[in-house]
Design brief:
Layout (H helix, E strand, L loop, with lengths): L2 E8 L3 H10 L1 H6 L2 E9 L2 E11 L2 H8 L2 H10 L6 E6 L1
Helix pairs in contact: 1-4
Length: 89
């Protein structure tokens, strides 16, 4: 059974957010997450959806509940409450 993490949020500026997102890659790798899709709305680049494959759903849960992720999201310009879904196939 495969596990996934889906995150959707609105950002202030996609280019600014993307630089911060890219810099956060080591934390995602440490959490066993592999980006499968990074998408933004066709009519609004600041509406971002990301799908990750998760090696371990519990490690993914720790990642999304971490203070580090909350602080990073704030720092890179996430402007709404993210929708976060832990999924199994």
């Amino acid at each position: 059974m495969a596990s996934y993490l889906l995150i959707r949020h609105k950002v202030r500026d996609f280019s600014e957010w993307k630089r911060g997102y890219d810099a956060h890659l080591p934390k995602r790798i440490d959490s066993g997450l592999t980006e499968k899709y990074l998408l933004h709305e066709a009519n609004d680049a600041n509406e971002v959806t990301i799908l990750f494959e998760a090696l371990d759903i519990n490690r993914a849960r720790v990642f999304v509940e971490s203070a580090d992720l909350r602080e990073t999201m704030k720092k890179v310009g996430v402007v709404d409450k993210p929708e976060i879904h832990l999924l199994n196939s």
